[in-house]
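Retro notes, item 3 of 5
We never archived the inputs for the cobalt (II) ion complex last cycle. Fixing that now. Sequence and ligand:
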Amino acid sequence: MLKLSLADFTLEHFMQHYWQQKPVVIRQGFKGFQDLISPEELAGLACEEAVDSRLVYKKRGKWQAESGPFESYDHLGKKGWSLIVQAVNHWSPAVAELVKPFAFIPKWRLDDVMISYSRPDGGVGPHIDLYDVFICQGSGRRQWRVGDTGPHRQFAAHAALLHVDPFEAIIDVELLPGDILYIPPGFPHDGVSLEPSMSFSVGFRGKSACDMLSGLADYVIDKDLGSTLLSDPGRPVHTHQGHINASDFARIKAQLQSILDDETLVADFAGSFLSRTKCQLDLQALDEPLNADDVLAALEQQPLVRTGGLRCFYLDTTVAGGVCYVDGERHAFGAKAQAAVKALCDHDTITHTQLRAAVRLPVFVAALVQWVNAGYWYFED
Ligand code: SIN
Ligand code: CO
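Structure as it came back at the time:
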């Protein structure tokens, strides 16, 4: 298991003073770190339709970006290009391990593990991201410059590449295998490979109010909620017909507010919405589906492993009813399943003991069987 070592501060200190606030270099954060996937395997993944990847390079001094899947890399030289693959934790159990050392940040904030393989002088150019990222250096060395937040001009260096103007560095370091560079959103940065190198970026991203409200609107429509019309019995005589007056405005706001004040509705929406994956999962459905007895017998012998990138959550508001949200779906298993639901959401591998009370509940077992057959959770042997 990968272990994060912080020589200069504690995790508490990191969260209090750096997280979302300022970039920092964590030298040898992963001692003896070795690539979790080879460049060849990464290049192979980028040839698959379901995998989100891109190539970034310069041609006659002009930035270029191509989206995968790729058929060949023959048009690229020995230098000056990067292959970037998103959500590799969905496709490689070894890469999914890299999420575990960051369990001090809740899973709902996790975006994905993006990996880049860069040739000497390769990089994506100076840019600003909207997410927090821990860039873990694998093989090879890479020079990173990070600037301060501020009014940086952004421009399209290519239709698919948003760059920033040159910036003054507040961090200028050569990352060696095992080093980690943490960058919060809004800090311009530029990484240029000094030799063939691999970077493993564990990204965390918050949603905007816009994302949440548009998701909530979809949820409310989908579930046919909030369809009661605004009503105003006893309305006084209105004097200015074109005026939406203060009491009408208060009524309009109260109508909207009543949705947000419904704790269960918002919890069910948030759980479902946040448990949806942005990138496709590598779901390996079983060729020969198991029945309940098969699943329970296997579970007594070995743990169930959650497939990489699968998101499942519970909230205080609804967990007493054994409610959890798995890959965008709400499941309610009843109060007796509360401990099992928490264990299922908190751990990447789960044992029979942890599910003890719930395996007696037919509704829970039925869901478990469906998840195992669909590949959401799997037995390693
Ligand atoms: C990269 O690894 O090439 C890009 C990482 C980043 O700057 O976001
Ligand atoms: Co970046």
